[in-house]
Amino acid sequence: MDRIHITGGAPLHGEIPISGAKNAALPLMIASLLTGETVELANVPRLADIASLLRILGNHGVDHMVVGKRPGQTTETGQTIRLTASNVIDTTAPYDLVSTMRASFWVIAPLVARFGEAKVSMPGGCAIGTRPVDLLLMALERLGATIEIDGGYVVARTRNGLRGGEISFPKVTVGGTHVALMAASLAHGTTVIENAAREPEVVDLAACLARMGARIEGAGTPRIVVEGVSRLGGARHEVLPDRIETGTYAMAVAMTGGDVVLRDTRADLLHSALDVLATTGTEVTALPDGIRVRRNGAGVAAVDVTTDPFPGFPTDLQAQFMALMTKAQGQSRIRETIFENRFMHVQELARLGARIRLEGDVAVVEGVDRLKGAPVMATDLRASVSLVIAGLAAEGETVINRVYHLDRGFEALEAKLGRCGAAIRRERA
Ligand code: UD1
């Protein structure tokens, strides 16, 4: 398995292009199952999770074409993918495919909405808590689907198509909202989704569905109303920038010091995280086509953070922020409210000399003057990139094992950081 070697200590200077959002691209690709016409998605990041989902969609019979690079495009400008689900041959999503990526479970919604049946393996994905699918299934049941669990598979069926209904989520769920939106778009009648997730990726999915002919109001607010239509058509849509990648590199710059422009991204996608960074003493400036992040020789102030659904501080940036706080001046309390087991990076950060203790859902981080490089293990997607950030600021060499987690979510990580002066290289197995 590949490893990443980092020699810490160098400040970051330069520009980092931000890729399209993985967490938007995945539901957008899945939405292509709602129509027999072609859905063209631009700015799709080149990531292992995208390739896995293409395999899963291919298994259902979705044709895909990756459009060639245009002159002037680098490999990091994202790819354009055309997906056509005109000939769906199989409504089963098998275990060996779905178990590699949790989001692929969401295919259940377009399959049952368009074809009246879907058989999808219970999901796998990052090992961060139990991550059930009960709310996703509740949403489908509210729209009239019958749900059975059979041999590790969820079987969803409807006789005469889905019907609009009231879906009130007891807890904010991004996946649940994506599923509800896709299913309701092809249901007969009106669906009201209460306590909907407000994440930018939900808004992006709703915008693409609208281009396909769906009638959706209120995406980005807690109450979304969908008037079902009998069919959806093709569309062209550009995936929004990855706010988690943006925040990750912003924290890397805060950690190492330096001056970096994060290009092709938007500050409004991650206000809460940028506000927190500003409180640590990092200079954050919104630019017309990106964000400039600067920190000079001064240290980082300790700040307390609680993760929350959007527009709160994202759980997907919690590990990275914890890495930053390991060298802060003073004590920071980081509370995780979304996933109960999302502290696996704590023991790995401790290997670099971080002082962190867990008190239930709070990690108490006592800032230290120096971290020291060590071999560490990546345990999940966001945890592994927190080790990269810590390694960039540690003395000596940090070796990150099991980097396949990184490849699931961070496009060209070594190249992007390397061009800004980081001493980072991949050792191919
Ligand atoms: C998505 C993101 C993930 C992010 C998370 C929260 C993608 C591909 N993944 O995951 O990166 O960390 O949002 O912002 O977009 N829950 C239930 N029952 C359910 C569904 C969820 O109890 O049926 C719980 C979860 O265990 C968790 C909370 O709801 O505690 C939020 O999960 P959810 O928003 O659904 O996360 P995902 O959509 O899986």
UniProtKB/TrEMBL annotation:
InterPro entries the record matches: Enolpyruvate_Tfrase_dom, Enolpyruvate_Tfrase_sf, MurA_subfamily, RNA3'P_cycl/enolpyr_Trfase_a/b, UDP_GlcNAc_COvinyl_MurA
User: Could you tell me which residues carry 2-(S-cysteinyl)pyruvic acid O-phosphothioketal?
Assistant: C126
- Which class of enzymes does this protein belong to? transferase
Indicate the residues that form the catalytic site: C126
Q: Which UniProt keywords apply?
A: Cell cycle, Cell division, Cell shape, Cell wall biogenesis/degradation, Cytoplasm, Peptidoglycan synthesis, Pyruvate, Transferase
Q: Where does UDP-N-acetyl-alpha-D-glucosamine bind?
A: R102, R131, P132, V133, D134, L135, D316, I338
Major place of residence: cytoplasm
Give the catalytic activity. phosphoenolpyruvate + UDP-N-acetyl-alpha-D-glucosamine = UDP-N-acetyl-3-O-(1-carboxyvinyl)-alpha-D-glucosamine + phosphate
Compartments, record wording: Cytoplasm
Q: Provide the E.C. number(s) assigned to this enzyme.
A: 2.5.1.7
Q: In which pathway does it act?
A: Cell wall biogenesis; peptidoglycan biosynthesis
Q: Where does phosphoenolpyruvate bind?
A: K22, N23
Q: Where is the Enolpyruvate transferase domain?
A: 7-417
Record's function text = Cell wall formation. Adds enolpyruvyl to UDP-N-acetylglucosamine.
- Family indicated by similarity: Belongs to the EPSP synthase family. MurA subfamily.
Family matches, as NCBIfam families: murA, PRK09369.1
Q: What is this protein called?
A: UDP-N-acetylglucosamine 1-carboxyvinyltransferase
Q: Which organism is it from?
A: Methylobacterium isbiliense
Q: Which gene encodes it?
A: murA
